[in-house]
Amino acid sequence: MKLFVDTGDLDEVKKAAEWGVIDGVTTNPTLIAKTGKPFKEVVLKICELMPEGAISAEVVATDYDTMLKEALEISSWNPQIVVKVPLIENGIKLVSTLTDKGIRTNVTLVFSVSQALMAAKAGATYISNFVGRVDDNGADGMDAVRDTVDMVNTYGFDSEVLVASVRHPLHVLESIRAGAHVATMPLKTLEMMFKHPMTDSGLERFLADWNKAGLSIF
Ligand code: G3P
Q1: What is the mean pLDDT of residues 25-54?
Q2: What is the mean pLDDT of the chain?
Q3: What residue ranges define each of the domains in the chain, with the CATH number in brackets?
Q4: Catalytic annotation on 84?
Q5: Averaged pLDDT, 140-145
Q6: Whose CA is nearest to atom 9 of ligand 1?
Q7: Nearest Cα to 175, choosing from 25, 165, 26?
């Protein structure tokens, strides 16, 4: 299973990259706007900080011709870049075109299996199914993820199901149980994945015993 960090913050990307276990970075217009820096500069710096990673950068137009121009521009910046496209009618048309050109895509703002089917048929590399925003509205966001994973596996689509809008480690557990291919989340949620109170208390005891005995490795 792949893990992506969902951020435009370069310090966060650097920290996550140093762990050696993160497979890419997802950004969106909101995250880029928060940085206060130019889009291209941020995206290229992210590519530099995570040279093996898949880096998602999103188009912002909604008419097909401008979306295509933006997608070709963004993807020309670095081969690591995956063009992020919203799931609207023109978005699906764009993904079909980009798939024919061999350009990787991440279809975003996906909330239902019928939307996911459109993305899979257009050849999306990643289908970003949002869970937290559905949970916020009193439904179970993971339902669509489970059904989408089944759909992709049943029909043998190449698309990877990417669980987005992940808010806590329980979403990661549910993503694993659903057989999702990728989960993207903020750095603070990734950091929570390291934590267990028994790890902390266990380590404290090991080190106290070691020090009491006056032992040393060197
Ligand atoms: O980048 C897309 C998604 O992960 C956003 O999450 O927390 O804004 O719903 P959130």
Answers
A1: 98
A2: 98
A3: 2-213 (3.20.20.70)
A4: yes
A5: 97
A6: 165
A7: 165
Q: Output the CA 206–ligand 1 centroid distance in Å.
A: 39
Pocket test for ligand 1, best of 5, 31, 133 (most atoms within 8 A of CB): 133
pTM of the model: 0.96
Q: How far is CA 181 from the centre of its chain?
A: 10
Calculate the CA 143 to chain-centre distance.
18
- 88 Cα to the center of ligand 1, angstroms: 17
Residue 128 confidence class, pLDDT cut points 50, 70, 90? very high
Give the ligand 1 atom nearest the CA of 28. Answer: 1
| Token pair listed for 137 | 């509205």
User: What pLDDT, on the 0 to 100 scale, is given for residue 79?
Assistant: 98
Q: What is the pLDDT of residue 217?
A: 97
